[in-house]
């Protein structure tokens, strides 16, 4: 489990404490910890900037020895499905007249998925899109959807970086993690 | 510290649609796992792969045994295949192939499992919809693990509730308490998380537990009346209500006047108003085109047709049966002599009435004495179920919705009543699941006890060809088309109903028959419940013995319903049964005695619940004892008339089927046959719907309406004369 540095739930805090403890006790972990520090700060940013929310912690807590890459798997799955959904919405938006109901359904789906993984910003954009949809405001929908797409792309990139780093951190990370 | 719980031993990792491994340590039929709640068998349904994966993992963390499914239809078939395997279902609301609420209804109807809904949509009305459709809980996405840790309580609660239901059904105090709690819960909790889930469960429990639960929604909707005690709409009460409405005319019936006519102490105008609203919905549903194949449009035509065809059945004078009531004595003789009499008395009884009356004098006499009784008990539900049946053909779903719960309850009740020992309890979809079956059984049993069983339902079933077993039976009985009723003429009220119900539960093969079929059966149930109304119909001809209603319930195995019912314990209806008007005279083979409990119409439905529970299947079983003519001993010849009419109308469509069924005199309930005939698997939905009284009642209602000839007894939901044929079990 990644090191929770900021806004960490109690468990993470404890974990965090342990890691620091280890850092102090085992200097050879310095290297690992720098990577981990990097990871930690990356994560912190994601949370602080609102890309991720509480739900992401829930996912992390589900990860364990038997499913060590659970979070990454879920996120990958999410982006796979959501990309397809975004493409569908894009297509639907091109149509005229606008089928708002269908759009709303799509967006509801996207919102549900996004909220499941804790993609906060994306979720918010989805909500505002749905509001425009309800009012059948085509312009508003188009604009809002651009934002949705943007958030989607940004989050995807950030999480890809994060997991890449996480994989690098893997073995060492596991060692430290075993301390919990 | 993170909990690193080991995943449940049985499930694999993140495999979707992974099936659980072998049988759990607990009884496969739904007993609690030994390390409960660990090992709780959960079926997870969500079309979103991401959510599915996440929630599955969460459930595994809770040590539950998870099976995932991304398709509702698959989930339903999985549930059906492994009946009793799952303890709980978690389902998403918005799914592409099937609406989550529909799935919920189906599950409730067929398997009676607790279902938890999930959605990112947290609007109150959607949550409310979940509640009204019978969800035990509603979780808002994103789902956290904490609420999931508590979902096992729903399983326990449900089981306990069912037990309790059996013990004493319809405790008024309980209703009150529940309703109060319910109200408070609704007011407090917007999002039905597990924390608030309790309230929802209470609500659901209340809904399930009491047949007269329909007050739920009303009460919920009326926050100002938080402490108002719930009114339990018993069958007698409902019958009075319907009588009053009919007297006033459905269009002119206003709560105030109805209240005055009913003269029931303690009933408020609001109670009546809400009940009227539901009744109207029910009627509307009935009028929606249902099984076109059989009974198109007006019953009369159908009736005639059915009658005629019925008559041709082996000497079963179904029509006579249909006419039941008055015809009974004569019919019986006529029937026995093989002459067919198309007693096209133009019964314009509402479908349900007909159903009840469809004691097809035809050979299948048997049964449904118990059904009658059950019908009585079910009364209200039956009516609904009838409508359901009718709808079934059509949309049924809608019908089922509101009454879903009721149906289940009815089913439960019936089961209790029936106490039929049929071994094959088909846990068909009745919500009460087993209870339904049992109900049916018990109904059948009663019927058989009486002597012959008229399985009107069976016939209905056959005719309707509704694939769903349950519906089938009921259809046969309720015959939304009233065909059944007309055909059978004999209506066993309680028995019929029960047979209907049992039929339902018995997985009556859904004959292709349109929902009417089932409705018929259902309707019979309600009528049966309102023995009063049906009386006449029950009598129909002795041929009534041949009501294959029950038998038609298609699959013989399903007839097990009836049997299954036998096992049920105390059903509220039981007491009702005793009070049910059962025509004792109906007894062609002196197998069944239909005791007609005449409330209004003395309707005697020979309830001969032949030990062959087959009949029990459905209340619909019109007790068509040939010998025993459910003569409406009662005085109200008028009743008989009505009954007859009803029967006529009902039989229209059922006729054809019936004929087949009828031919099986004394065979297992015709219903079974019909069901078998129709065993095609009807869409689940239909199945479920059929089960639900709504359909039946709708059917009945339609029929009734169409045929309404100012028969005051027209109690659409009253199928008295269903005798369950000896349903081949």
TrEMBL record, chain A:
GO terms of molecular function: histidine phosphotransfer kinase activity; protein histidine kinase binding
Coiled coil: none
Chief site of localization: cytoplasm
Compartment list: Cytoplasm, Cytosol; Nucleus
CDD domains listed in its UniProt record: HPT
Record keywords, A-Z: Cytokinin signaling pathway, Phosphoprotein, Two-component regulatory system
Assigned GO CC terms: cytoplasm; cytosol; nucleus
Domain HPt: start-end pairs: 67-162
GO BP: cytokinin-activated signaling pathway; phosphorelay signal transduction system
InterPro entries documented for this protein: AHP1-5/YPD1, HPT_dom_sf, Sig_transdc_His_kin_Hpt_dom
Phosphohistidine modified-residue sites: 108
Domain of life: Eukaryota
UniProt function note: Functions as a two-component phosphorelay mediator between cytokinin sensor histidine kinases and response regulators (B-type ARRs). Plays an important role in propagating cytokinin signal transduction. Functions as a two-component phosphorelay mediators between cytokinin sensor histidine kinases and response regulators (B-type ARRs). Plays an important role in propagating cytokinin signal transduction.
Domain observations: Histidine-containing phosphotransfer domain (HPt) contains an active histidine that mediates the phosphotransfer.
Protein name: Histidine-containing phosphotransfer protein
Automatic annotation (TrEMBL), chain B:
Domain of life per record: Eukaryota
Occurrences of domain HTH myb-type (ranges): 227-284
A Pfam cross-reference name: Response_reg
Entry's Gene Ontology BP terms: cytokinin-activated signaling pathway; phosphorelay signal transduction system
Cellular component, GO, one term: nucleus
Compositional bias of kind Acidic residues: 211-221
Domain Response regulatory: 41-156
Gene3D superfamilies, per database record: 3.40.50.2300, Homeodomain-like
Presence of the UniProt keyword Nucleotidyltransferase in the record: no
Alphabetical UniProt keywords: Activator, DNA-binding, Nucleus, Phosphoprotein, Transcription, Transcription regulation, Two-component regulatory system
CDD domains the UniProt entry points to: REC_typeB_ARR-like
Biased composition annotated in UniProt, kind: Low complexity: 7-27
Subcellular location: Nucleus
InterPro entries the record matches: ARR-like, CheY-like_superfamily, Homeodomain-like_sf, Myb_dom, Myb_dom_plants, Response_reg_B-typ_pln, SANT/Myb, Sig_transdc_resp-reg_receiver
GO MF terms, alphabetically ordered: DNA binding; DNA-binding transcription factor activity
Keyword Transcription on entry: yes
SUPFAM superfamilies in alphabetical order: CheY-like, Homeodomain-like
Basic and acidic residues: compositionally biased ranges: 169-187
Residues carrying 4-aspartylphosphate: 92
Region (Disordered): 1-31, 169-230
Family listed: Belongs to the ARR family. Type-B subfamily.
NCBIfam families per record: myb_SHAQKYF (TIGR01557)
Protein name: (wild Malaysian banana) hypothetical protein
Organism listed in the record: Musa acuminata subsp. malaccensis (Wild banana)
Record lineage: Eukaryota, Viridiplantae, Streptophyta, Embryophyta, Tracheophyta
